[in-house]
Amino acid sequence: MACFRTSARICRQFLFNNSSSTKFSAVFSSPRWMSSGNYEYIIVEKKGEKNNVGFIQLNRPKALNALCKGLMSELDQAVQKFEKDDDVGCIVLTGSDRAFAAGADIKEMQTKEFSDVWRGNFLSEWDALSRCSKPVIAAVNGFALGGGCEVAMMCDIIYAGDKAQFGQPEITLGTIPGAGGTQRLCKAVGKSKAMEMVLTANRISAEEAEKAGLVSKVVPAAELVNEAIKTAEKISSFSKIATGMCKEAVNAGYEMSLKEGLHFEKRLFHASFASNDRREGMTAFSEKRPPKFTDS
Ligand SMILES: C/C=C/C(=O)SCCNC(=O)CCNC(=O)[C@H](O)C(C)(C)COP(=O)(O)OP(=O)(O)OC[C@H]1O[C@@H](n2cnc3c(N)ncnc32)[C@H](O)[C@@H]1OP(=O)(O)O
Description:
Blueprint: H1 2-16, H2 21-29, H3 31-35, E1 42-47, E2 53-58, H4 69-84, E3 90-94, E4 99-101, H5 106-109, H6 114-119, H7 128-131, E5 136-140, E6 143-145, H8 147-154, E7 157-161, E8 165-167, H9 183-189, H10 191-200, E9 204-205, H11 206-212, E10 217-219, H12 224-236, H13 240-255, H14 258-272, H15 276-286
Parallel strand pairs: 2-3, 3-5, 4-6, 5-7, 6-8, 7-10
Antiparallel strand pairs: 1-2, 8-9
Helix pairs in contact: 9-10, 13-14
């Protein structure tokens, strides 16, 4: 019976995956995927020449990757797994060509009462990405709306395909963003643009998002995932201690006053002198050879 369920799930993933035969072979022929856990709503693999990039693809195409409880719980598990995987130095999170994610699952929320969401602290399980100490790159094609835009903003770097659209349409549902859509958006694009987006549900294009500062790079949609993986491979090639410190310094500095941020950054810089990788990096430079980082 368990075997039948697994086969049915695999078939469902194939039938509903609106992707090409390349993705078909990636899903079916990859023993890595099979060994990475039986997920229903996401595809999890390790990518990159050195297998050091954790790759998560949201895979609920019929609902445009709406972020239902099951999907968010699987995402949490996959992120935690990659967090513990010593080979993985960076994670790439993507969706489909049509949608990164069209938001929290409206049909799942439709019948919830105030007491359900308040007492159950609804959305608290969405914090996995924000808690991850390893860098996470969102590769966004298609719709990134509501919770989809918020999940992208929880990542450290956003790359967008040229047809991507970002928006916070919760106002049309009689509610407001609840997973960072006001706060993070405001910090990313400024108060006036964020206010306009949340009050009107107007979407912005990838190009506008890049100009406003929400995304760091726009590339042709078909090249997006490879581009994100290339960047992730580069990040993974560095010392994990140093990349972790960089991430911590940028994130902390973002929240602090300039004075506090500068102090915190300098202290982390000092702390990096306790690592073997700092010594190796500087020695390798002096000896004109590539460094061999040991993440120690
Ligand atoms: C804290 C976070 C809160 C939130 O995130 S609240 C949710 C915010 N998001 C939204 O309001 C966006 C809702 N979706 C849409 O407006 C539209 O979709 C799109 C503009 C993204 C695409 O429109 P089109 O191309 O016409 O496709 P389609 O027929 O509407 O959608 C295809 C299937 O996907 C389901 N779906 C789309 N978004 C969601 C969602 N957010 N929650 C649950 N289901 C969703 C639909 O219902 C439908 O399914 P079926 O074919 O069975 O009718």
